[in-house]
Amino acid sequence: MKTINFEQEIKSLLPLFQPESLAIIGASENPFKPSGQPLVSLINAGFKGKIYPVNPKHTTLCNLPCYPALIDVPGSVDLAIIAVPAKYTLDQLQQCADKGVKGVIIFTSGFAEVGPEGAKIQMEITELAQKTGMRVCGPNCMGIFSSRNALMANFSVTELPEQVLVPDFLGFISQSGGFGAAIYQMIKEKGYGFSHFVSTGNEADVDFSQYMGFMARDNYTRVIGGYLEGVKDGQKFINATDMALQNNKPILLIKAGRYPAAAKAAASHTGALVGSDKVYSAVFKQKGIIRIESLEEYQIVLSILASNKCPKGKRIAILATSGGSGVALTDKCSFYGLEVAPLQAETRAKLDNVLPAFASSANPVDITSAILTQPGLLEQCAEIVINDPGIDMLITAYWALHGDRTNLEQMVRVSKKTDKPIFNIVWGPEEAALQALHFLNDNLIPAAKEVDFAIRSLAVLADYSEFKTARSNKNNEDYSIQAPPSAKKMAGEILNNLKPGAKLTEYEAKQVLRAYGISTTREVLTKTTEKAVQAAKEIGYPVVMKIMSPDILHKTEAGGVLLNIATDQEVVESFNKIIENARKYNQDALVQGVLVQEMLSGGTEIIVGAGKDPVFGSTIIAGLGGIFVEVLEDVALRVAPVSNLDAREMLEELKGKKIFEGVRGKEPVDKNALVEIIQKVSRLVEDFPQIAELDINPLLLFPKGAVAVDALIVLQ
Amino acid sequence: MKTINFEQEIKSLLPLFQPESLAIIGASENPFKPSGQPLVSLINAGFKGKIYPVNPKHTTLCNLPCYPALIDVPGSVDLAIIAVPAKYTLDQLQQCADKGVKGVIIFTSGFAEVGPEGAKIQMEITELAQKTGMRVCGPNCMGIFSSRNALMANFSVTELPEQVLVPDFLGFISQSGGFGAAIYQMIKEKGYGFSHFVSTGNEADVDFSQYMGFMARDNYTRVIGGYLEGVKDGQKFINATDMALQNNKPILLIKAGRYPAAAKAAASHTGALVGSDKVYSAVFKQKGIIRIESLEEYQIVLSILASNKCPKGKRIAILATSGGSGVALTDKCSFYGLEVAPLQAETRAKLDNVLPAFASSANPVDITSAILTQPGLLEQCAEIVINDPGIDMLITAYWALHGDRTNLEQMVRVSKKTDKPIFNIVWGPEEAALQALHFLNDNLIPAAKEVDFAIRSLAVLADYSEFKTARSNKNNEDYSIQAPPSAKKMAGEILNNLKPGAKLTEYEAKQVLRAYGISTTREVLTKTTEKAVQAAKEIGYPVVMKIMSPDILHKTEAGGVLLNIATDQEVVESFNKIIENARKYNQDALVQGVLVQEMLSGGTEIIVGAGKDPVFGSTIIAGLGGIFVEVLEDVALRVAPVSNLDAREMLEELKGKKIFEGVRGKEPVDKNALVEIIQKVSRLVEDFPQIAELDINPLLLFPKGAVAVDALIVLQ
């Protein structure tokens, strides 16, 4: 349902990107002003549609007739740019609506970013857009550039790039005008073509996710990029990433606000809630979004994608021209998670055949200074190594020589014969190195002089390949854990009859968990000492006894939990003691009874829980209990729904994961049981979105199976 | 004693760097051969001393008289370069000794790096050097370059640099010829002058540390740099770093082999044991050595040092020209451990005074695109911000404009007026950015386009300043914990009477610990059940009983430990049981008796230990016990001696350090007691170097004091 709406939303963006007619309200012919730059650029770049300048002060602008008001424009208008002061903006937007304009770009600033008064006017823009179905980009934005149709509807990209090595490549969306323009400039300079470039501004109507969705569906976009500070609607964002995955388009985002200081700065920059970076990080993992950490990495990742050779795995070979640089490259590969893999005996034999005696054919391969004296050696070695079936990619480092392209041409030839990426680290005097890098870049051979950026880029792309491979396996993408209708009914009887904000007692919460197939301690809620003794006998000694009251959530604090109760008499005493303590703790507390519970020993303490993120909705956490969570905050987080693979990856990222394999003489525990419970919790909070918080703490995980010992559920 | 020797060793290197006469054995005049390059370069560069080519095949070379053999050279020879095949090398070296040559550089390869046979000849080189006192650089090296005297005694640096911005700056030592040459080239290109550049080769005689020591004492070296794979003698390395610290010279090392794959590659590259990177890492921390992670970082750290403005602390201000780039820079600062500190109210008021209304004066300061329209704004803002007393450094990011140096000149002016570093991130079209970077670099203003390298470089230099400040406080540098003579005597009575390889029982080990003032559990070694009961009564129930035998070190495994013994009768039964179990476990074991020990409860489990590193000698570890050490390997390591500050820093780097402050309702524990014990263990292993291994596990740390519960000492 949501997805269908989202498809429609995306389609409605077409007039923003492919208008056949365009009006500029408040137009001028001064190319240094936002009101003039689009007009001049559209004409110079050869925009194919009709252009209507609108400004009562002129009769012509740039030799085009200029209209006093939008209503005076003779034909229909697909897209309008509004470049008038803030106080006139809403009126002009209304005129757009009256004229039947389909898309509007508002350059004007002075709205939500300046304070509450501006936010109020912005809200009216939003309402007008929603009421009329007219799509609005901005306000407070730099506009839209589309290359195919020379749509220069912005004041940042003023001309079509002269030379494009890879046309129809990157669609870029930026939540910062200035920083976005800087990124545009750097990527353009490398020759990578932009399909579209959008500065989103305050997103009064169209938001970051809708632009992403548009580019996921767009035929001229191969890669989706962006600078992101935050989205308001997580579900839309996920819809857009799913579309990109379906269409096999990588998403490369610079996401600001990883650290609190930056998140604060971003919030003050956009005037919007940016959400928790931990949750974004979870979504990025679940959806294979590539988080780009620097402008240099952006260029390099794009250069590898532009070459159409993504590393399929993490096994890298190194070809160096000195022992020292081979060692240094090996360190970097390890640091960034790539495996400097052993070469096959056959490969080494072939290398030994061409290398001088003092060289080394082990990975890192050291071809030594023989590269200078043995023509073709670099090419021979590269070809031998890249054809090793145990290798996913090659990185080679050599010295640029003034005016000598021998090595470069060798690398171009080798690269053309393989579908695995070969990355060239080129060192040397600045000018020679730059020329070499330009030559390689022009031949679509990935190359740089910075080892760190290069290897990290290869590593993130290897991760991306592994993400896609793992997700292409249906078993991994299994979200199929479904509760039977009876379970939903049972849980619903409890959850649907409670008031908003209600807190379930442990006893109630565990009934819900059991309904969803999660084992809990055996337990009986008792209201008299007699019933308690009877229950204890049935369960078997020793038992635990706990106060059950919706008004007492911190049971231990209230003296409401007694452990290791071993006899009938102790049960009676404990029952009375617990009731007495509860009265003392909160004399108005509604007491439902005393829970008599089996006392488990052994097992590994785990916590599994769920929460709500204001942007992305239900989140799921899992971690090792006790000091792991308290001291190390060692928990893994995902957003619901969590697939089988997601759950397994959660456990893999825990620092204390060694515990699962058994330490201090313990047996390994039942990880599969935990994976299933994580998915069941995910299913439960999806079936009952009114659950704001769920905690199973501890869950005891055994060599076979797992049992929830305590649990808490809080409704919204 | 050691240090005095080291001073002499260093002085003896002078002829390698400042010879007044130089012979080249096996000389040629072909500048493309190692045998010819030095001769040509020495003449071209204007070396002031005498040059004697030696080669029986020639009578003149490069217009200089050429001698058939070294003996034929008329005057004395300070330094000889040997560039003859490996098989003639030893003979020529002997001739150098006969001639009274003081320093020799052997270019020739084919020694330890090619296998055992080569290693044998190399050993003879070492012996000849040691016997004669003649100092040898190499073999298998590229030689030595010194700039002051135009000493081109190498085949890597062939000419004096044309333009040197900062003369007498960097002394560089490289354990890789090729990689070292690459580093040389990149640093030279920035205009930073080398005092000396050494390729160390196989280090048959002079080693990395001696060159470091030489540069620490050298008047023309301000900064010591190097590419390091490993040293053989850790003490010498430490002596050299201490000298550098005394002389206020930063040490910047690229240390290879952080990860196993690279360590393996380095070992095969140098043919030498490279040692544990963890121990190097500890030494770097204790001695303030700056570990450089990339060539780019090398250039940038040098550029900041060259400007003579090192950040004194970690508080950074950001001046950006777009909100987005300010946010992105803030994230990077947080990532690399810098603090984007709040600006003082006065600073913000001054900023608000000059900034446009839509800009932001909070750190990160966003001066917006007003930088383009308000001349002088960048300079004004930078000056206001850098003068904030709560700020240690400033980073600013702006766009390079073709042919327009306005911003650059502003930054030069501001930088000249402050002693705090101002770093310039310059973005823009490649050519404009390069020109801007060159201009700033030529004015000794630190600048780059890569944010990551820039901020990481500022962070490592802030760390270095903090290291020096902390060490300048005498209390922090306190190594004064001394054992009284009686303690040394008591411990000596036990330790000096044991055979090499002996393993002390817990009872013996704890006596040693107590002698050094480390509290242990109260305990009595008993040989009869009667004595055991008596002991238990004195200690107070409950007690622990343990088998004591030098042949049973894994006491628990042998059934030799019983806990929670509460009555006289249980003592008797336990005694007999333990003896019986010990007999079953190892019927030949020498049993010294049964240890009756107080049973402690509560406290936080800690481990403190000592070990031996083949390179650096005694090492000290400390960590949290239990799963922290077993699952997370959460231990801090240092080499002995450990100062008070070192010990405190060890605890600071533990992942689980939150435990010390008290978690789960526990009181904070006595960190000072632990700091003292770490230092006492350090003192103990220094006083008794025969201790190969020492383990206190667990040490129970209480809110007041700490008690060793179990201990182990193994001798070498």
From TrEMBL, chains A, B:
Gene Ontology MF term list: acetate-CoA ligase (ADP-forming) activity; ATP binding; metal ion binding; transferase activity
Keyword set, alphabetical order: ATP-binding, Ligase, Nucleotide-binding, Transferase
Limits of the ATP-grasp domain: 510-546
Superkingdom of source: Bacteria
Family: In the N-terminal section; belongs to the acetate CoA ligase alpha subunit family.
UniProt name for this protein: Acetyltransferase
Organism: Desulfotruncus arcticus DSM 17038
Organismal lineage: Bacteria, Bacillati, Bacillota, Clostridia, Eubacteriales
